[in-house]
């Protein structure tokens, strides 16, 4: 069975993401400052991605990122910086320090989810950790067996759309969206939206395929 994607959420106000991310197939561990985050990482490096707030007590996000990138066992874990400061110079500074992406508060959830998925795809850390990150022959065959409607739903999932947004855009009910997702996950042999997005990306799903 595929493992859930593990997120280390480093934020002194974590409740919103701590509550919402599990609904999208993520296992979340919370640290409320950089010191606590490094203590957690010292015990376990088994995280797929780190969401790192910038402004925190005890140790801010910049100093935490510096330590992560200087530590051999941690340096390859992808990090998305989360901050309320939309300063281009600071964004460039963060990326030069080793951040994989940057998102400013307040953010739209689909935007954050899409960025997480994109970073995970680039780092090839999504999917069944016991197998290759490439799409299997079985998944490729099952991808081709998706109906046009299922592909339309999957494309919207890759864009970070919520179930309600998918329902509104396709003019269908939420129950119907969930039914399509169940069928898509079953056919692709995946457990969550992130894994389905990875398959869709590797199969180059786009609007052109739906025309």
Spatial order of the strands forming the largest sheet: 2-1-3-4-5
The span between the termini is: 35 Å
The assigned CATH architecture of the largest domain is 3-Layer(aba) Sandwich
Helix coverage percent: 40-55%
Task: Give the percentage of residues in beta strands.
Answer: 5-15%
Give the C-alpha Rg.
18 Å
* Helix/strand structural class: alpha/beta
**Strand and helix order:** EHEHEHEHEHHHHHHH
Count of spatially separate domains: 2
Q: What's the CATH H-level superfamily name of the largest domain?
A: Response regulator
**Shape type:** elongated
Tell me what you see in this structure.
There is one protein chain. With 211 residues, this protein is of the alpha/beta class. It is 51% helix and 12% strand. A five-stranded parallel sheet has the order 2-1-3-4-5, with helices on both faces. Strand 3 (49-53), helix 3 and strand 4 form a beta-alpha-beta unit. Helix 7 (148-158) crosses helix 9 (174-188), helix 7 crosses helix 10 and helix 8 packs across helix 9. Mean pLDDT is 81; it is low at 125-134.
